[in-house]
Amino acid sequence: MEELGAVIFLKGGHVPRSFSEGGGQVSKRIGILTGGGDCPGLNAVIRGVVKSAVGRGWKVVGIEDGFDGFLHPEKCRCLGLEEVRGILPLGGTILGTSNRGNPFAFPMVREGKVELVDVSDEVCSRIKHLGLTALVVVGGDGSLKIAQELMRRGVPIVGVPKTIDNDLLETDVTFGYNTALETATEALDKLHSTAESHHRVMVLEVMGRYAGWIALESGIAGGADVILVPEIPYDIEKVSQAILERGRRGRRFSVVVVAEGAFPKGGGRVVKEAAGGKSVVERLGGVGEAFSRELGGVLEMDIRVTVLGHLQRGGSPSTFDRCIGSRFGVKAVELIESEAFGHMVCLKGRHITSVPIEDAIRSLNLIDPGGEMVRHAEALGIMLGR
Ligand code: F6P
């Protein structure tokens, strides 16, 4: 591994502001971190950033475990071509990640109690100390909100939109989403045969937090009969009628995809863990079981539930995510070169471009219940719970 001069400064020594200091040759040193939940394609982005930065003669410092890494000197390491060799098809992130390391509300144990402490000053001074010209934040809504706050504190940042949920605005797609869709669609294909053989209702619970994209698109691709998404509160009676109607047409089975954030009309989301305890954000999960109990109350059929869970986040990225992730990485370096700080790379049509981070995080990218994709799903005969 290439020696990082900064390792000395990490232990309190001198930090060159840039590689030009003392040498004469102007170069940049940029940092990269991956924050929030992991997602297929993270390594493709890291590799893309490193390859294109090294190609310009720049140095890259990898910060491990999200923003948390800034608080631990040993978690900042040099990333060269050798470190990113062979990582393109790997799931997860070679840098590690965390969704508990918000520097503006960092959980610390004080006198036996967990308190949320603002450690952003420490993070900013570490970034300065590391001599970083810019920081690439690869993250979803939460990490990019932190990035935006750090920008306001003077840290030059560019963002890369990551999440299987596809819930970020201003990009046609986030990387990782496509792989999650593939996983969910494959699960639906497998559930179909067993549903048909046993004349059962098979319910597949998928992730997505407050957005129903994974459920809707995998449901269309996997030929689901019912798709329930958070954007359309479902009517259990209507769902049951649709399944019975299928029975009358000789279809004695049904496949239902339910997004973890879906909820019945007049009801609430199923929350596994409220925010504030061990978890910084609300953890969803369990709607599959809740829905199946409700359905079992109004329908005389065998019902089984499969929770796809973190399988959607793991594994090798799809071709699409490898390609888009790599290109996002290259574009992030181009943004740094042109000093377009505060911007996030994004896909618009077939082009990789950029938008201000604040536009991407102003709200969530949710399904439009009156939109084209919902209309097309319904035209295919899929029941959306209404
Ligand atoms: O945001 C990605 C995601 O996988 C969501 O779809 C899901 O609700 C959440 O993260 C799960 O988080 P964790 O891994 O912390 O349980």
Automatic annotation (TrEMBL):
* Record-given protein name: ATP-dependent 6-phosphofructokinase
Instruction: Name where it's found.
Output: Cytoplasm
Xref: Pfam families: PFK
Species the sequence originates in: Geoanaerobacter pelophilus
Q: Which UniProt keywords apply?
A: ATP-binding, Cytoplasm, Glycolysis, Kinase, Magnesium, Metal-binding, Nucleotide-binding, Transferase
The first-level EC class reads transferase
Please indicate if the UniProt record lists rRNA-binding as a keyword: no
Enzyme Commission code: 2.7.1.11
| SUPFAM superfamilies, per the entry | Phosphofructokinase
